[in-house]
Amino acid sequence: MNLRDQRLLFQLLSLPTAPFREQHVLDFAAHLLDRARVPYFADPAGNLVVGVGSAADYRALLRHDHREPIRLFIAHTDHPGFHGQRWLSERRLEIKWHGGSPVRHLARAPVWIADAGGYVARGQLLRARLLPSRHAIDRAEVLLDAPLARPHPASALFGGFGFRAPVWRSGKRIHTKAADDLVGVFAVLATALALFRGPTRTGRPFLGLLTRAEEVGFVGALAHLELGWLTRARRPVVAVSLETSRTLPGARLGKGPVVRLGDRRTVFDPGYLRVLSELAERVLPGHHQRRIMDGGTCEATAAIAWGIPAIGLSVPLANYHNQGFEGGPDCRRPEGPAPEGVHLDDVDGLLTLCRQLMRPGLPWTNPWQDQQRRLRRNLAGYRRLLRSGQPAG
Question: What distance in Å separates the CA atoms of residue 115 and residue 151, rounded to the nearest whole number?
Fold first, then answer.
């Protein structure tokens, strides 16, 4: 990965975000795209659509009569976190948690607090109460380390678990407050910047969709799908979910990006998945992985539920949703709050596959042609034996 891409990745990982509080990430993306003259627009739900400058251009691209599918790269801009609810005192804030979280060793866990302008304070988590399902925090209190410099309505504040820094690097391991799914956002933006750098800036079969509130049930993606623009497309569309997914057996840090065969809910489109798998074999031989990443669900499931074929790519993620499954620096205790971790080589491989997926001439319309040829050659070699074993007529 070149230094420019690394800088972009670290800038994104440094930004505060939480479900429904993604504006820092969305604003950063918009400024970046403006500078590079990459077209984009916000849909009615506030998701950012990259690659076209308006809803009219979006629909026109989908109406264009072409056999090659539009690649719709989807990544979400939020990460589990909390919203302020009400002030209990000058330094005590009642909060509501949104999304997954650790459920052990929560008392006095450090947190960061931000508003629309950026980070404003640090604090500690107190009196955490879990959801009835016991899988995540429901409500808690935050004790600020010091009073805020100026008054804030409680509802203007949001936050998440805090560590020594928003992001830092140890060798090729990146530790951060939130890799899921800012790594996917990075891949969408870096792919768009590369595609629109050349002289031809229109008509590319590329769309990026940076969604909101994925962590509470794909809310932004569903709002976009409900617009009906994609389901009325005249040309093929393949959704490419870009995720940062929990490490599992067969999906380990440092072994390359994962060609995701499915998630906890469903398997992905076999034909388009064949294109992706063969591409990965060619461009990342021995440096990618294949697995059903069933540690969670992703926005590919939402696309499939709306009738859009989908495939997926994942970067293996340590300490998924800040749960200290793998431990490491700043992990308080096993399964307690911990920074998420990814490997730089895996992120670089993800970016390589995204860019390669945009190559023209991939076998989207007949992805099994090579396999058919191999199987027919095998059939031809056994014709004589096949006839020899037939019963007499």
Answer: 12
Determine the number of helices (DSSP H) and then strands (DSSP E) in the chain.
Answer: 10, 17
DSSP state of 155: G
Nearest to 198 by CA among 206, 210, 209: 206
pTM: 0.95
Neighbours of 45 (CB within 10 A): 16
Distance CA 277, CA 306 (A): 24
**8 Å CB contact between 111 and 122:** yes
Helix 23-36 / helix 3-13 crossing angle, nearest 10 deg: 150
Backbone angles phi, psi at 137, to 5 degrees: -70, 145
DSSP 267: B
pLDDT single digits (tens) 328-364: 999 989 999 999 999 999 999 999 999 999 999 999 9
Cβ–Cβ under 8 Å, residues 62 and 237: yes
Identify whether the C-beta of residue 195 lies closer than 8 Å to the C-beta of residue 187: no
